[in-house]
Amino acid sequence: MHKNLESKLNKFRQLIFEDLESQLNAEREQFKKESEALLNEKKELNHKHAEQFYKMRINVADTQVNKSLSISKMAVKNAGLELRENIFAETMQTLEQKALDFRGSEEYYKYIHNEIGSIRKELKQKSIRVFHLLEDKERLTEIFDDLETAAIEWKALNETYIGGIIVEISEQKVRYNITLKNAITEKSDYIGGVLYELLEGMAD
To answer: Where are the beta strands (DSSP E) in 62-120?
Structure first.
């Protein structure tokens, strides 16, 4: 994934700066023509007006340079934001697909077992509700058998959660979201932050 991201960034830089180079070359040619016209005009000026001519010449140059910089920075910034959004969406989609592939594997059930183990004390002697995928019921029953809960109510988990479980302690209104969807969502801020750091300096 990292190599794929780096490849996209390199392609982005190439496309953006090729466009900027083409734009600046066109402006340079236009500026050259204007310079020649101004120089021809200078020949007709007397020495008294030479200082005024040079000041005007500098102002023209400054205006065009500032305009080019402004356009360039805005183009890079907008393209960078769009690229970040596209890569972020693609990355999240890839993670969801990997989660679907992970679901139902032996490692998947080990993951649930470990997560449940981390809240074992909180569940002891409690009446709980467990939201789960129907296909996971048999394996989950084995995992919960030795937890010493007071009672377990099994509920269907919506497929949008991809996999995993949600455990609720009825009397305490406590909810543990151990779904694959939640695991991905918790990573989204980190992924967005990484993309921001990679792209934030491109318009400087």
So the answer is: none
Structure tokens at 173: 């209104």
Residue 104 is classified by DSSP as T
Distances 173 to 27, 84, 140, 179 between C-alpha atoms, Å: 66, 38, 22, 18
Sign of CA dihedral 145, 150, 156, 158: negative
List CB contacts of 166: < 8 A, sequence separation 6 or more.
Answer: 130, 131, 157, 175, 176, 177, 178, 179
Phi-psi region of 125 (alpha: psi -120 to 50; beta: other; left: phi over 0): left
- Residue 142, Cα to own-chain centre: how many angstroms? 39
Structure pTM? 0.61
Q: Please provide the DSSP assignment of 110-149 as one string.
A: HHHHHHHHTTHHHHTT-EEEEEE-GGGHHHHHHHHTTS--
Beta strands in the chain (DSSP E): 127-132, 151-156, 164-169, 174-179
pLDDT in tens, the chain (204 residues): 445 555 655 565 555 555 655 665 666 566 666 655 665 665 555 555 655 665 566 566 667 656 666 665 666 666 667 777 777 788 888 888 999 999 989 999 999 999 999 999 999 899 999 999 999 999 999 999 888 888 999 999 999 999 999 999 988 889 999 999 999 888 887 777 776 666 665 544
